[in-house]
């Protein structure tokens, strides 16, 4: 009986003691992890390389896209410039026609007056009436020029100025000094500071030179 108890005691002493630790077993850690990650382990870390490949296009493709964009911008600029030129040409033409109309309209009345004067001359011998009609036409003509800003200037008694006067001829004069305007054939006209027509004049060449015999 004692022998049997001793065998049981020796058998129980051979069993290893159970060791407790604070860390969970690997199986328990895996069980607590995200199920989606463990169900699809191949998807982890693969999205970033895929996006990088989609963004990083070959240099040749980027260059072609840039050239196409610049070409499109150039064509648009060229179209805008052509439209601008056409618009400016049209506006300049319109402004010119408007200017011509404003210039011509005041003179239409003058042609009417001339026509009336010519008709009156055929029907009457009254010189005084004809002269009165011509003076009226001259007055209307001056009025039209004033409305356009055109000013008339005279060169009589002035020193010859090639910038304002057109010398038709030179004549000797004992009374008018050399280089002075002796006669005026036509007056001059200016629009602001711009010369429209120079005055046509005869310039004095001074006293007539005496011959050797007279000297």
Automatic annotation (TrEMBL):
Positions of region (Disordered): 1-56
Keyword Nuclease: no
A Pfam short name: GrpE
PROSITE patterns: GRPE
Compartment(s): Cytoplasm
Positions in coiled-coil regions: 60-87
Keyword entries, A-Z: Chaperone, Coiled coil, Cytoplasm, Stress response
InterPro entries membership: GrpE, GrpE_CC, GrpE_head
GO cellular component: cytoplasm
Gene Ontology terms, MF aspect: adenyl-nucleotide exchange factor activity; protein homodimerization activity; protein-folding chaperone binding; unfolded protein binding
GO annotation, biological process: protein folding
Subunit architecture: Homodimer.
UniProt record similarity statement: Belongs to the GrpE family.
Full protein name: Protein GrpE
Gene: grpE_34
């Amino acid at each position: 009986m004692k022998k049997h108890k001793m065998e049981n005691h020796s058998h129980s002493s051979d069993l290893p003691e159970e060791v407790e630790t604070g860390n969970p077993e690997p199986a328990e850690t895996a069980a607590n992890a995200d199920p989606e990650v463990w169900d699809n382990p191949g998807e982890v870390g693969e999205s970033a390389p895929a996006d990088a490949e989609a963004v990083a296009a070959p240099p040749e493709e980027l260059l072609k896209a840039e050239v196409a964009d610049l070409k499109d911008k150039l064509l648009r600029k060229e179209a805008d410039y052509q439209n601008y030129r056409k618009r400016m040409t049209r506006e300049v033409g319109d402004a010119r026609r408007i200017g011509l109309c404003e210039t011509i309209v005041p003179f239409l009345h003058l042609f009417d007056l001339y026509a009336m004067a010519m008709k009156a001359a055929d029907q009457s011998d009254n010189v005084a009436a004809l002269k009165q009609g011509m003076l009226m036409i001259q007055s209307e003509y001056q009025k039209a020029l004033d409305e356009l800003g055109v000013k008339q200037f005279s060169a009589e008694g002035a020193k010859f100025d090639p910038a304002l006067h057109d010398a038709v001829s030179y004549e000797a004069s004992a009374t008018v000094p050399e280089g002075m305007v002796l006669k005026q054939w036509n007056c001059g006209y200016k629009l602001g500071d711009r010369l429209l027509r120079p005055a046509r004049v005869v310039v004095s060449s001074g006293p007539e030179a005496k011959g050797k015999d007279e000297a």
